[in-house]
Structure prediction request, 272 residues.
Amino acid sequence: MELSILGAHDLESKDAHPTSLLIDGRLLIDAGGLTSSLTLSQQQQIKTVLLTHHHLDHTRDLPTLGFNVILWQGQVTVHALPQTFDIVVPCLLDGRIYVDLLKNPTLVLKGAMCSQTMSPAEDKPPLKLCEIEPYKKEIIDGYEVLPLPVKHSVPGVGYLVTSSAGNSLFYTGDTGPGLSDCWKHINPQLILIEATAPSKFTAELAMRGHLSPQSLKEELSQFRQLKGYLPRVIVIHRALPYEQQIKEEIDQVAIELNADIGLGYEGMTISV
Ligand SMILES: [Zn+2]
Ligand SMILES: [Zn+2]
Prediction:
């Protein structure tokens, strides 16, 4: 698998995008910094989006992707928890804030642009929704996908994605401490995990369902204790104003655990 990090932060700036990961150019996990990171032809390769939870820094580019999908008369399937769709559909997709991306494009654009070129067979909504169930493995776009619940302030899952070759990565999404149940279910070659702010905020972050470098270290120590190894770890979802401090603290965690732990950046690609 070839992983591209499109967004490695929890906010948008000139060189930083909200969280978004792309696997082999076609399977997207979270839609934070998606459309601003890819050309239209790259966006056209995306067939599937997995959402970890409903927060805007993970979902905000769904409407812009859906609108672009109309251009090439395609369809992207979005997978998420029912509780995630309960928020995302009425807030982002139902046509009030933008166009209704769950209806046929001819209706979306009222025939102005699409109806002259689109045959009835191609008449399909730009976005199709598909509910996932925690702990239930599914084959999605050729990958085995296992959603595992995490401890965030709203219902959320992390995803274990396994390629047909048997390589796997696990992305936690936003999570606070308490990942030991997830660890029982996975043996990945790569973990993507969050550290939202420096360790001086550990208690506050835990209350909001996030990790600091300090609490991340405890979670990774538990992983190693349970599994007998620690794979490469990439840390994302950082608050940009604390970038340098988080980096220094994560570097220290890597030394203390004697493990391959580093920051993920926009534009980084990793083979798994
Ligand atoms: Zn969140
Ligand atoms: Zn977030």
